[in-house]
Amino acid sequence: MNGSDQIRDDFRELIEAYALGALDSEERAAVAAHLATGCAECTAALREAQWLVSQLAYLAPEALPSDMLRGRLMQTARAEAAIARSQTRSDSTASKSMIPVWMWGAVAAALLFALYNAHETRVTKDAIERTRASLEEQIQLQKESARQLAVARREALILTDPKSIRISMPSANKDLPVLQASWNRELGLVVTGQKVPKPSGNRTLQLWLIPKAPGAKPEPSLTVRPDADGKFELLVANPPDSSGGTKALAITVEPEGGSPQPTTTPIWVGAVAGK
Amino acid sequence: MKQPNVFLAVFTPSDSSEVSPDAALVRRLLQRDVSAFEELYDRHSRLVYALVLRILQQATTAEEVVQDVFLQLWRNTAQYDGSRGPFVPWLLAIARNRALDQLRLKSERQRRREDQTDELPPVVAIPDFEGSLDEKRRATRVRELMNSLNPQQRRAIELAYFEGLSHSEIANALKEPLGTVKSWIRNGLLRLKEGLQTAS
Known about the structure:
The complex is a heterodimer of chains A (275) and B (200). Chain A is α+β, with helices and mostly antiparallel strands. Chain A is 49% helix and 18% strand. In chain A, the strands form two sheets. Chain A has a four-stranded antiparallel beta sheet with strand order 1-2-3-6, covered by helices on one side. In chain A, strands 5-4-7-8 form a four-stranded antiparallel beta sheet, with no helix packed on it. The longest helix of chain A has 43 residues, at 118-160. Chain A is extended, with a radius of gyration of 29 Å. By secondary structure, chain B is mainly α. Chain B has helices at residues 6-11, 21-30, 34-56, 59-75, 87-111, 135-147, 151-163, 167-174, 178-199. The longest helix of chain B has 25 residues, at 87-111. The radius of gyration of chain B is 18 Å and the shape is globular. Chains A and B meet through helix 1, helix 2, helix 3, helix 4 and helix 6 of A and helix 1, helix 3, helix 4, helix 5 and helix 6 of B.
């Protein structure tokens, strides 16, 4: 084995972790630099590793996005497609019209002017780019604040709407507080708790929806950890089913990130009445 | 006749006359075909959403990220180069990167830390053997294979994939030596690969 083979083999050992994004910065930079040399074997190995890493997505508990999301996306796409079509029509009409000779002269002058200003433009562009990056960060922060506000509003609506079904979730352990849930057909499900002890280590509380259908498996929902005061509010914006198909809600302690099916006995259970 | 090894199939240049359903939909998407967009969304939104929700643990934020991912697909369809790999891993890589960016943004704001801004490797090509296992079977197989790892090894891989932690961050989180974490992750992924090869 010559020196370059050894180097390539050293990098090959890091490829999976590189694809996973797990390398620390020094190793990551070294692998990136090696890949930039165009090493065909490592590039092929990276492709394979990236595919492999993508398979880990199947570990995520199954979940359904809301119909509202689909509606929003398709509405946007339809609107943009309509704009693009009308743009294409007007471009096509414009291209068919005659362009006078004097206009070509004006275009040439404009091009010369643009070239003359290219350098200044580049400098300005760099400054704009820096400002844009900073603005982007601010916008992201604002979006996050707005999102949190929207969540809080939605929770408040669910909790106050008279149409919401109230569900009390007591625990078999009398030392533990009773949790409260409110389920609204349009707005979602909120579960709240006060003075709830934190699960040990990295473990977390996970909500389950127990279907009415005999033999149907509990449907996994979101996970939550109480804050320092033992308080939590869990908003399930799009419960996988309307409350009509659900017999009960249950909460178990699960490993961080949740489980596809319960691994412990439920601590809190609440029967879903009504509808 | 012996079935071809899946990873050999992966690297066998595909017959250009054979177009996967996703590739055909992406072509239509380039023509701004909304029905193709609907079909792609219906085929893959569940998996994308499940992944993003697993990372962010919050349905509202997860939906926002999924919306961004699909809008990016709609508006910048040309970014996907079908000759470099199948569609789903590409889409999942975008979704994961976006969700992890969101997670980091949140943790940065909360902890006022500036040491987690490193980006993941760019999304490049991925070998093609989509369709050789259907989605349900594949999910079951991946879960079985991961459950066959020791719990700490599985945890290390999950911390890297779902939380975007690096080797040394995982070693700190699990209180294990760095070398151990590195071997766990590599060996775990290689085992997953072997298991999926067998499954094909």
